[in-house]
Amino acid sequence: MGREIVQLKGNRGGLQLVFAPNVDFESIRDDIQRKLEEGSRFFRRGTEIQIAPGVLSEANEAVLRKLFHQHGVLFRVEEPVEAPPRPKVERKPAAAPAPQPTLIVEAPKAIPKMEEPQMLVVNRTVRSGQEIKSPGSVMICGNVNAGAQIIAGGSIDIRGACKGVVHAGAYGDMTAFVVADQLMPTQIRIADRIAQPPENMKKPTVAERASIKDGKIVIEPIERQEIKA
Amino acid sequence: MSEVIVITSGKGGVGKTTTTANLGVGLAIRGKKVVLIDTDTGLRNLDLLLGLERRIVYTLVDVAQKRVNYGQALVRHKKYTNLFLLPTSQVADKDAVEPEQMLEIVQAMKTEFDYILIDCPAGIEQGYETAVIGADWAIVVTNPEISAVRDADRIIGKLQAENKKIKLIVNRIRPQMVKDGTMLDMTSIDDILSLECIGQVPDDDKVVDSANRGMPVVEWKDSAAGAAYRDIVGRICGEEIPFKPFETESFWQRLKHVFGH
Q: Residue A35's pLDDT is what?
């Protein structure tokens, strides 16, 4: 599989449109049109797509704007807001209900600038055919059964068994992660990476965390912090 | 007090109609006044299992469309005179009865019957909506196999979204296979569905025989499935009945099976 002509990169400002080098505008336009018509999951109605100024000529920008608008997608020419590395680290306390003490110290500083959506807490088992979707992080207090789907812009924390499909960082956040007491999903997706657990997987005995390391989804055991009453 | 129970499953062929027929007859034997409503329009079967096919004059569709009163469409059971069937049409399709019409019929029946059991069609489309709308609570029937459990999970999610109370019946259990570890056991099913179970019904050849004769196994004294259904009827009536361990085949019985009967 070659490099995609049109790609979307997530940053703090939204979704950034990026093109493969040395591709003419016609191919770009055709590719976007095809994706829009196929109803690709990136180009949902109401999504806001950005492009850095100067990448395309103004005439070509107008062509794309019209194309996106026809499909209900917002299109803006804007300087990309590069995510500074620190706030990205600080998102984690928002996702982990029992953050480690060292991170708690940093968390208050992050709160005023946070424009990110709040964490969604689901207080039940998510069953086959049900889908939980949130632009922010998601915490499930219950199981995620096979046939269920969790899609989060941020990270996913499951206080129970995870047997369904989980997609963290669905808008491109490579630092997103998935934590579950028993992590045995049908499939794990983080940003644009997909991993499939081995067949005949044994029931894990400890909580595990999946995240991207060196471009691959890696699963490692973690210790849940017990909160003593 | 009238109780309206829908018997549903998601997947087809797990034993919804068999369960409805057996619980209906079981409750009638205990002297309750019972009506069974078949909502599987176009694929009706409940009348066959009760041996009442030839007595049908009007159907649920006629009642829903106000051509007759429900009383005119009810078919009385031959042996148990306090058991009635409201059959559905075999020629119409599922959208012939709107959920609102069904709700109205069930509400009207509540004053007359102790138990209203609704046999739900397979699937999660309009037929399901129609069957479920009037129910106080639901019985989900499943089999100890992965596809039936998955579909049960789906239907449980839908029912919980409508705030219905749900109880589980696991049907067609083969004790020997469970013992050998080749069939899902109750623990694994409970792991996935985590519901209160009110019945574990073993697979029983007599169920097929009874269907052909139109006499549900619940009245058969020598049937293991019949005994399980009698226990479920007791639990529905509020009795505390412990689950009995299944009898698995002894070594000699298995040997007999190997060498033919």
A: 77
> Minimal CA–CA distance to B249: which of B237, B257, B261, B238?
B257
Q: What is the DSSP letter of B258?
A: H
Residue with tokens 């003490």: A101
In a mutagenesis test of the B interface, which of A123, A127, A141 is the best target, namely the one with the most B β-carbons within 10 Å?
A127
Check whether A77 has a pLDDT greater than 80.
Answer: no
A128 has a chain B CB within 8 A of its CB: yes
Q: What is the mean pLDDT of residues B164-169?
A: 97
Distance CA B130, CA B137 (A): 14
For residue range B220-259, list pLDDT tens digits in order. 999 999 999 999 999 999 999 999 888 776 667 767 776 7
Q: What's A86-221's CATH class?
A: mainly beta
Nearest CA in chain B to A145: B192
Q: What is the pLDDT of residue A32?
A: 80
Of B11, B4, B1, B6, residue with least CA distance to B171: B11
Residues A102-115 pLDDT 10s: 344 444 444 444 55
Q: Answer whether residue A91 shows pLDDT above 70.
A: no
Q: Do B157 and A146 touch (CB under 8 A)?
A: no
Q: Nearest residue of A to residue B154 by CA position? A: A128
Kindly report the pTM of this predicted structure.
Answer: 0.70
Task: Give all domains of chain B, ordered by start, each with its CATH number.
Answer: 3-258 (3.40.50.300)
For chain A, the domains span: 6-77, 86-221
Contact B157 A127 (CB under 8 A): yes
**DSSP bridge pairs for A48:** A74
Cα–Cα dist A157/A155, whole Å: 7
Q: How far apart are CA A166 and CA B194, in angstroms?
A: 21
**Residue B194 at interface with chain A, using a CB cutoff of 8 Å:** yes
- Chain A: residue whose CA lies nearest to B124: A129
3-state secondary structure of A37: helix
- Residue B160 contacts A, CB cutoff 8 Å: yes
Contact of B80 with B30, CB cutoff 8 Å: no
Here the ipTM equals 0.78
